[in-house]
TrEMBL record:
Protein's recorded name: M48 family metallopeptidase
Transmembrane segments: 21-43, 97-118, 130-155, 175-198, 219-245, 251-272, 370-391, 403-421
UniProt entry keywords in alphabetical sequence: Hydrolase, Membrane, Metal-binding, Metalloprotease, Protease, Transmembrane, Transmembrane helix, Zinc
Natural source organism: Parachitinimonas caeni
Occurrences of domain CAAX prenyl protease 1 N-terminal (ranges): 149-282
Keyword Protein transport: no
Domain Peptidase M48 as annotated: residue spans: 286-490
Length: 491
């Protein structure tokens, strides 16, 4: 029986030569602290600077609608988009500063170390003997309905199940895995709590002010409860498995953990349209006969088979409109927000759908997945290296290394260190948008797509005069003027 949380073995002889060699990179913990502080300061300053530029650019252009949009967007609508963009950017600036402080608190301020200490003390050999089997049971019982769990509990009592469950945990798991899972949830929960006031303000303050918010405190509370339950049902098993692999699979744990993560991601994608999305929204098959016939014509032209065209009650939460695909293989679903159906003409809806089909036909979804999982493979390798390096923990304010602490520190600081890659992924995404637009123009009407897009820009109060540098770094979609110009060239 192993009761001790497994400490990370720095001296472990790694068979992976590259890891071993890289682990010898000379870095001191104070050196890493300084590096982290410098990169975080740059990350914060660059983000604030870009938002500041964006705000001033939008403000400078608020007095006149650009000539190419003069017929479709009124000055009042253009000015509303400017005010909305500026308000959102100011909020983003405040959140950048706040998130930086939270990150510092969790790392150098000792937050992760403190939470890890708590989790270890809860799951320690001194903790009550029933805690370990109860942790198992609580996971099992959430998956079973109440009558079944009562039967399970009685059965366990009668047949000495607690003891065998206890044995099972200690043979295959350890208290380290349990406290590690607890730490992951403690960190996720605390970051969620720290960001909650901001998301509440965003929904009930900012979005409300500009007339986009349709959600109520009741809907939001129910949404949060549903999300927590989903996180519990899917998150606990995943995190437990990942931490177990990290502790037990030797030098190549990161390959196994990566494989589990990929399989899990694909599984979620496969079940999302049928089991997860309906928990939050109602989906009804598209009823409009004329529109349906038009859409089926397009699908046939494009040689596309799907599991149906659905309308989602997006208007329950927000007046913003959208359309998307979900699932893969034969499970693909086309989903329109009810707000989109309301606002666009059948011709425009067809063109927007043709754009979405373009993403599919040009293999953008597969390409994005390969990129996502490919970069995850690299990040997992780097985590494998950092997990063995004392300077990584000490440099980020954790005195006692643990597997879960390595995982959480890595997840927390990763965005700061990879920020410089964001413009590349934005650029690729914008390139995909141009390709999908070109596809839509070839299968549907470029003119209808232009008018539909402009309507969406207008109704969603998206600015048509963004700062070019801000747009290059952040925007997954090309600025309206450039996008429309490209479409006009094809039309
Ligand atoms: Zn697109």
């Amino acid at each position: 029986m192993c009761h001790n949380p497994q400490p990370v073995k720095f001296s472990r002889k790694s068979r992976l030569f590259s890891h071993k060699r890289l682990a010898n990179v000379s870095m001191t913990s104070s050196g890493f602290t300084n590096l982290f502080l410098i990169v975080l300061a740059l990350y914060t300053l660059v983000q604030l600077g870009l938002k500041w530029r964006h705000i001033h650019h939008v403000d400078r252009h608020r007095h006149a609608v650009p000539s190419e949009f003069a017929e479709s967007i009124t000055l009042a609508e253009h000015q509303k988009a400017a005010s909305y963009t500026i308000a959102k950017s100011k909020l983003a600036m405040a959140m950048t500063l706040w998130d930086g402080l939270v990150l510092l608190g969790l790392t150098l301020g000792g937050g992760v170390g403190l939470l890890d200490g708590w989790c270890r003390s809860v799951f320690s050999p001194e903790s009550p003997y029933w805690l370990v089997p109860m942790a198992t049971l609580s996971t099992v019982t959430t998956l079973l309905s109440l009558p079944w769990s009562l039967l399970v509990l009685i059965g366990m009592k009668l047949f000495g199940g607690y003891a065998s469950l206890d044995l099972f945990w200690h043979k295959y798991l350890s208290l380290g895995v349990l406290s590690g899972t607890a730490l992951v949830f403690a960190v996720v929960l605390s970051t969620a709590l720290f960001s909650m006031p901001w998301s509440l303000y965003s929904t009930f303050g900012l979005e409300q002010r500009f007339g986009f918010n349709k959600t109520t405190v009741k809907i939001l509370t129910i949404d949060v409860l549903k999300s927590i339950s989903l996180g519990w049902v899917f998150g606990i098993p995943l995190v437990t498995v990942i931490i177990w692999l990290m502790e037990r699979m030797g030098a190549y744990w990161w390959v196994y953990a990566w494989a589990v993560w990929v399989i899990f991601g694909l599984l979620i994608m496969a079940i999302y349209p049928h089991f997860i999305a309906p928990i939050f929204n109602k989906f009804v098959p598209l009823e409009d006969v004329a529109l349906k016939a038009r859409i089926e014509g397009l699908l046939k032209r494009c040689g596309f088979s799907s599991n149906g065209v659905f309308v989602m009650d997006g208007s329950r939460r927000s007046a913003h409109s959208n359309a998307y695909f979900s699932g893969f293989g034969r499970n693909k679903r086309i989903v329109f927000y009810d707000t989109l159906i309301e606002k666009l003409s059948p011709e425009q809806i067809e063109a927007v759908l043709a754009h979405e089909l373009g993403h599919y036909r040009r293999h953008h979804i597969i390409k994005r997945m390969v990129m996502l999982y490919g970069s995850a493979f690299v990040f997992m390798f780097v985590l494998g290296l950092l997990k063995q390096s004392a300077w990584f923990y000490e440099g980020l304010g954790v005195a006692q290394p643990s597997t879960a602490a390595a995982l959480m520190l890595f997840m927390l600081v990763l965005p700061v260190f990879t920020f410089m890659l964001d413009p590349i992924s934005s650029l690729l995404s914008r390139r995909h948008e141009f390709e999908a637009d070109a596809y839509a123009a070839s299968q549907s009407s470029a003119q209808a797509l232009i008018s539909g897009l402009v309507k969406l820009y207008r109704d969603n109060a998206n600015t048509v005069t963004p700062d070019p540098l801000h747009s290059a770094v952040y925007d997954s979609h090309p600025p309206a003027a450039i996008r429309v110009a490209a479409l006009k060239k094809i039309a």
